Amino acid sequence: MRTIDVKEVTAALKKISIEACTVLNDDVMNCFKNSMKDESPVGKAVLEQLVKNAEIAKDEKMPICQDTGFSCVFMEIGQDVHLTGGSLREAVDEGIRQGYTEGYLRKSVVKNPLLDPKNSGDNTPAILHTDIVPGEKVKITIVPKGGGSENMSRVNMMKPADGVEGVKQFVLDTVRNAGPNPCPPIVVGVGMGGTFDYVTYLAKKSLMRKIGERNKDPKLAELEKEWLDEVNKLGIGPGGLGGKLTAMDLFIEEYPRTIDYSPPALYLYFHAARCKSCII
Predict the structure, then answer these.
(1) What angle do CA 188, 192, 193 make, to 5 degrees?
(2) How far apart are the first and last CA of the chain?
(3) Strand-pair partners of 195
(4) pLDDT in tens for each of the 280 residues of the chain?
(5) Residue 274, class by beta-carbon neighbours within 10 Å (0-12 exposed, 13-18 middle, 19+ buried)?
(6) In the 8-state DSSP scheme, what is residue 54?
(7) Residue 50 needs a FRET pair 20 to 30 A away by CA distance; which of 33, 138, 165, 229 works?
(8) Residue 125: how many CB atoms within 10 A of its CB?
(9) 8 Å CB contact between 279 and 137
(10) Where on the phi/psi map is residue 77: left (φ > 0), alpha (ψ -120 to 50), or beta?
(11) Angle at CA 197, nearest 5°, toward 219 and 166?
(12) Which residues, in sequence order, are bridge partners of residue 268?
């Protein structure tokens, strides 16, 4: 049994919350650069601006995008870990509080949204997902989710008879209707199966993959490539101004479902695709 003080969780989240919002991942930057040669003139100009923006953000330690979003935190906790020193939930929120305050990141979270909406002032509470896994380590991943792309995400309780083609059409219709609003080029996360709440978790969890990282199931991997190609044929392009790169990638995560419904969920993530992880 390994003992970990929750203060380590706070320190780790403080660090990666700032990094996620200010340092673009290499896989995304490489996708921008590699896509320029085949892009339309306008699309190429947009990608060049995105590269320049990311370079300035990293050098100046400024947010890649002003909308630094809701802090979605995924934790894989080893079953041989004993967390001590206080509440894990409080430690997570404290890490977000410190990161968003000391990193000068926009605080976007509104408490009591129905009757008395007020900004929390520190971007807490986080959305926290935990999973118990074998081992004695803790993996922490933060995915800051901005409002522009979140607003365009959808879930659809479909009939099993709708089949693969029905789900593909749902994906294409959602991206087409979103148009420029999620700030393309986007990343498309598709969840399939489970329940109404779990399928949205699957779709969002898929966004933690690197660009080009395929599903381990060969058949799903082929479906990812096929649907990605169809999405890019929509021609929405970088910035929604037309072009070939509407989506940098498309990821599918599936889970068993019951016999009487077939729920797909679609999470769209904007061009920055902010995601940072660490292991303690």
Answers:
(1) 160
(2) 14
(3) none
(4) 999 999 999 999 999 999 999 999 999 999 999 999 999 999 999 999 999 999 999 999 999 999 998 999 999 999 999 999 999 999 999 999 999 999 999 999 999 999 999 999 999 999 999 999 999 999 999 999 988 888 899 999 999 999 999 999 999 999 999 999 999 999 999 999 999 999 999 999 999 999 999 999 999 999 999 999 999 999 999 999 999 999 999 999 999 999 988 899 999 999 998 999 999 9
(5) buried
(6) H
(7) 229
(8) 18
(9) yes
(10) beta
(11) 45
(12) 188
Q: How far is CA 263 from CA 178, 190, 227, in A?
A: 20, 10, 18
Helix (H, G, I), strand (E, B) or coil at 260: coil
Question: What CA–CA distance (Å, rounded) separates 83 from 208?
Answer: 24
Q: What does the pLDDT read at residue 261?
A: 86
Helices (H), the chain: 6-22, 26-35, 41-60, 88-102, 147-150, 163-178, 196-206, 218-232
Element (H, E) at 5: strand 2-5
CA gap 43, 51 in Å, rounded: 12
Please state, as a whole number, how many other Cβ atoms lie within 10 Å of the Cβ of residue 86.
Answer: 14
Q: What distance in Å separates the CA atoms of residue 237 and residue 42, rounded to the nearest whole number? A: 9
Residue ranges covered by each domain of the chain: 2-22+64-145, 148-274
For residue 268, which phi and psi values (nearest 5 degrees)? -105, 135
Both structure tokens of 141? 């991943």
Report the sign of the C-alpha dihedral through residues 141, 219, 188, 166, in that order.
negative
Amino acid (one-letter) located at 218: P
Question: Helix, strand or coil for residue 78?
Answer: strand
Residue in the structure block whose two tokens are 């996360």: 189
| Rounded distance between C-alpha atoms, residue 209 and residue 187, angstroms | 10
Burial zone of 181 (CB within 10 Å; 0-12 exposed, 13-18 middle, 19+ buried): middle
Three-class DSSP category at 216 = coil
